[in-house]
Amino acid sequence: MSAPTAEPAGSTGVRWSVPLVLLVLLAAVPAVANAADMGFVTSLATRIMIYAIAAVSLDLILGYGAMVSFGHAAFVGIGAYAVGIASAHDQWNAAVTFPVAIVAAGAFALLTGAISLRTRGVYFIMITLAFGQMAYFTASSLSDYGGDDGLTMWGRSELFGTTPFEDDTAFYYVVLGCLAGCFLFARAVVGSRFGRVIAGVRENRLRMQAVGFNPYVYQLVAYAIAGMMAGLAGALLANHAEFVSPSYMAWQRSGELIIMVVLGGMGTLHGAILGAIAYLTLEEVLSHWTEHWRVIFGPLLILVVLYARGGLGRLIGRSGGDG
Amino acid sequence: MAEPILVLEGLCKAYGALTVTDNLSMAVQAGSIHALIGPNGAGKTTLIGQVSGQIAPDAGRIRFAGRDVTDLPMHARCRRGLARSFQITTILPRFTALENVAVAAQAHDGHSFRFLRPAAAEARLNDAAMQALETVGLGDRAAIRAGALSHGEKRQLEIAIALVMKPTLLLLDEPMAGTGHEESERLVATLEALRGSLTILLVEHDMDAVFALADRISVLVYGRVIAEGAPDEIRADPEVRSAYLGEEGAP
Amino acid sequence: MTATLVAVQVLNGLQLGVLLFLVAAGLTLVFGVMDFINLAHGVQYMLGAYLAVSFYGLTGNFFAALVLALLAALAFGLLLEFLVFRHLYDRDHLDQVLATFGVILFLNEGVRIVWGAAPLSYPIPALLGGTIPLMEGFGYPIYRVAMILAGLATAVLLWVVVTRTRVGMLVRAGATNPRMVSALGVNIRRLFMIVFGFGAMLAGFAGVMAGPILSVEPGMGDGVLILAFVVIVIGGIGSIRGAFVAALLIGLVDTLGRSFMTDIFKAFLAPAAANQVGPAIASMLIYLLMAGVLFFRPSGLFPAAGR
C-alpha cells in the first residue's frame, strides 16, 4: 500500500510540481538573461543556486531533524577554503578538490556534531554558533592564505584538462546540475528509512528511543551529510567568486541561511530553494535602492516571524495546520 | 522452574530526600501477566522507567532474559526484546498511525542506514504495522495523523507500537488511563489474547482489569513491595486492604 | 620583565572577563527566567557605547554621560521588550533567534545611519587617567583597574540582589521552575520586564565602560555576544555564579592564549611554524575549552537545578 509520507509538507502534487517548475525556470535563466543583455542576472542566479544548495542541506537537519544549527556557514566556508587553498598550491583539478572540499566539511561536521549533539535546545544553537566562529577565526588567522583579507584564486577549477567552469553559462549549468542532484538526493533521504528516523526523533525523541533507536547516531550522520552538501556549495562558491574569505563563515551568513529556510517554509526542501531566491533577490533589489537595506530588512524579518510564520512555501499550497 | 525473565535486585532511586524506589527486589515469571499496583506516588512509573532504561537506578541490578542490563541504555534494552508504553501518551504526532507503528517495526527489521529507497513503500514494514493496528482495533484509522486521533485511540496506538516490536517483555504503564469503558474492555481482550505468547508487566489503576488479567500481583507502597501473590491472596491480604485497596474501595 | 608581562596580561584578562560577565549576566538571566534566547543582547552593549558618545558630546563629562547612557539603555531595552520581545516569549527558540537577528540587522545598520560607519571614541575621565606602577618604569592604566573593580562590584551587587531580595528569589525560582512561579500568582510579565530592562542596562554599562579603550563602531556587539554565549554555555544557562566563573575563565584564557601561545609553540616548533600555528590555536582556544567542558558536562559547570 502507499502510505502517506512522514513529512510535514503538503500534497504530493506540490512536493513535485513546485520544484519541477523551479528547475525549468532556472534552466531558462541564462538564455533569457543573454537575450535581454543582462549578463549579471546569470551571475546572480548562479550565486542564488549555490546558496540554495546550502539552504537545502540546512533544511535537511533543521526542517526534518529540528536541529537548529547556527554554524552552517562554516561548512560552506570550509568547502570554499579547500578549493582556494588547493589553488594556492596549483591544484586545479575539480576531481581532486571537490571531494576534498566535501570530505573536509563533512569531517568538521562529524567532529563538531559529535560534541554539539550531546546537548539540546538552546545549548545546541549556541554551541553550533560557537563552532562556526571557531572556524571563522581560524580562517582569519591563516596568514599564508590571505588571513582576514581572504585569498584570491587566479582562475576556476578544471576537470581533467577541460574547463567546464570557465564559461559563465557552462558554470551556471554545472551549478544547476549540482542543485538538482542535491535536491533529489535530499528528497530521497527524507523519504527513506533513515529520514523517517530523523523525522521521528524530531517528533518525539523518547518514543524513538523506546522503540530501539539511538537518536544520537542518526542525528550525527544527518549532520555530517548536511555538512558535506554545504561543503559542495562552498567549493562552487569559491569557483564562482574566484575568491575565498573568512566572511563566508561569519555567523551572519549562518543566520541568513536559517532565514532562507524559514522564509521558504521549513521541512519542504523546495522551500529552501524558494527562500534562497527570495532572500538574495530581495537583498539585491533593496541594496540597489539604498546601501542601508538592512534597516528595511530587519523589521521585515521581525514582522514575518511575528505574523507570517510558515514562509513562502505555505502560500504556495502547504496543507498547514501544524508547525 | 526456569529463571524468571525479569529480576530486580535491591533497586534504589531517590530524588533528593525523596526515596522513590526503596531497596526493591522482585521477579517476573516468563509468560505471565504480572500486575503492579499501588497508590499514587508509590513509585510505579519510576520503576517502569528503571526497567526500561529511561531512568538510571542509584543502586541495584536489573536482569532481563538472563543478562544484566542495568548499564544498557533504553534503545539497547529495546533491541533485546523489552518494549514499553508510556503513562503520558508518547507518539509521533505528525506521523500517521501506520507510520508510527511502521517506524517501530523498522527498528527491528534490519538496519536503518538506508538513504535512498522510500520507506513508505516497504511492504514488510507496512504489513507488520497494519497487523499490529488491527490487533488493537485501529485498522481503519491507519492513514490518520496520530496527533488527530482521540485520546483512547492514542492509547491503543501505543500498544500497537509496542506489539509490532514482538517483545519478550512488555511494560505497560497505565494503558487504560483516561480511556472509556468500551475501550478498556477491548484492551483487556487484546491483552488476554496475548497471554502466554509474551510476558507483560502491567501498571494499572483499573482494578477490574488488573484482577481479570493478572496471574500475579505486586503491591507497591512508598517504593517497597509490601505484598505479592496471586489475585485471590492479594484481595484477602489485610495489609493491602488497609494500605491501598481500602482507599479505592475493595472490588 | 616577563613576570610583569604576565601580570599585565592577567589584568587584561580579568578586565575582558568582567566585561563579558556584565553582558553574560543579563543574557543568562533573561534566558534562565524566560527561556528566551536573545541575540540582540550584543547590540544593547553597542548601543550603550554609542549613547555614551552622544551624551559625552552633550555634557562633556564622562560620569554624566555614564548615568544618562544607563538610563537611556534601560529605556531602550524596555521599549524593545514592549515592541518585539514580549511577543516572542511563548514562541519556539527558532522564532526567537530569527526575530532577534532582525533586531541586530536593524540596529547595526541604524547606528551606521545615525552615527556613521567610522569608529568613534570618548576620552577616559581625568579622574581615572594615569597609571599604577607595577614595576619600575612600567605602569598599568588606572582606568582598566577601575573597570575591573566596577565589574567586581556589580557582580557582588548582583549576587546580593539575586540571593537576598524578593525579586531575586523570584528570578532564581523562575530559572529553576518557571511554571511554579506563575502558579504562585506572581505577575510574570512584570518580572520579565524588570529582568529584561536590568539585563539591557548591564550590557549598556559594559558598552559605556568599553567605549574609551575599544573603538565604538557598528557591529562591535556581535563578537561580544558570541563570547557571552560561550560564557553562559560553559557556566550553565541561568546561573549567575556560573556566568561569573566562566567569564573570568574565558577572559583569562583568551587573553593569555593570544599573548603567549606563539611563544609556547616556539618551544617545540620552528619559529615560522609557531608563528602560523600559534595564532590559529590561540583563536580556537576558548572554543576548545567550551567543547571540552561540554563533553564532560553537557549542561555547563553550574547547571541551574531542575533543568
TrEMBL record, chain A:
Transmembrane segments: 69-88, 94-115, 122-139, 170-195, 216-237, 257-280, 292-310
Membrane topology note: Multi-pass membrane protein
One GO CC annotation: plasma membrane
Alphabetic keyword roster: Cell membrane, Membrane, Transmembrane, Transmembrane helix
Localization per record: Cell membrane
Keyword Magnesium: no
Pfam families tied to this protein: BPD_transp_2
Gene Ontology molecular function terms on file: branched-chain amino acid transmembrane transporter activity
Cited InterPro entries: ABC_transp_permease (IPR001851), LivM-like (IPR043428)
Protein name: Branched-chain amino acid ABC transporter permease
High-level lineage: Bacteria, Pseudomonadati, Pseudomonadota, Alphaproteobacteria, Rhodospirillales
UniProtKB/TrEMBL annotation, chain B:
Gene Ontology, cellular component aspect: plasma membrane
One GO molecular-function entry: ATP binding
Alphabetical list of InterPro entries matching this protein: AAA+_ATPase (IPR003593), ABC_AA/LPS_Transport (IPR051120), ABC_transporter-like_ATP-bd (IPR003439), BCA_ABC_TP_C (IPR032823), P-loop_NTPase (IPR027417)
Ranges of residues in domain ABC transporter: 6-247
Classification via SMART domains: AAA (SM00382)
SUPFAM superfamilies xrefs: P-loop containing nucleoside triphosphate hydrolases
Key words, A-Z: ATP-binding, Nucleotide-binding, Transport
Protein name: ABC transporter ATP-binding protein
Organism whose genome encodes this protein: Thalassobaculum fulvum
TrEMBL record, chain C:
Main location group: membrane
Subcellular location as annotated: Cell membrane
Originating species: Thalassobaculum fulvum
Signal peptide: none
Membrane protein topology class: Multi-pass membrane protein
GO CC terms, sorted: plasma membrane
GO biological process, one term: amino acid transport
Keywords carried by this UniProt record: Amino-acid transport, Cell membrane, Membrane, Transmembrane, Transmembrane helix, Transport
Gene Ontology molecular functions: transmembrane transporter activity
Protein name: Branched-chain amino acid ABC transporter permease
Protein family (similarity comment): Belongs to the binding-protein-dependent transport system permease family. LivHM subfamily.
Highest taxon above the source species: Bacteria
Transmembrane segments: 6-29, 36-56, 62-85, 97-122, 142-162, 191-214, 226-256, 277-296
Pfam assignment, any one: BPD_transp_2
